[in-house]
Each structure stands twice: as C-alpha cells, then as structure tokens.
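Quick question, first post here. What does this chain look like in 3D?
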Amino acid sequence: MPVVRAAAQKLDRLASTSPVERKNLCKCFVGAIKRFPVNLEKVQRLPKLCKLHVTLLSNPNVDCSKF
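> Answer (accepted):
Ran it through. Tokens below.
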C-alpha cells in the first residue's frame, strides 16, 4: 500500500497545480476506468486512505471539462 499511497499523493499534488492538469488527469482516470476492471468502491476509498485533497474519479461518465 505505501507505493500506491505515494503514487496517489504525487497525482494529487499534480492535480493541485492547475486546471489543465486536473482535466488531463480526469481524462486519464476516465480512460482507465473504461478500459480496465477497476473496482469503483475501492477507488472511492482512496482519498481518505491516502490523505488526498483532490477527489479521484469513480464515474466513467464524468465530464472532465468541468474540472
């Protein structure tokens, strides 16, 4: 879990830098959710477990242009 936490925190810092980065990460997460067998319930728990400021996406239908 420490490796996952470190990676999630790095993405969290990147997402905090600018709206463009948040949109890019949103598109990346949406693509991953659609392509891979992602457990959405576990994704929803990551912000609390990893102490993230930016909420990770757990909806493949989210509109990334709003981030």
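Residues 2 and 65 are 31 Å apart (CA to CA).
The two ends are 28 Å apart (CA to CA).
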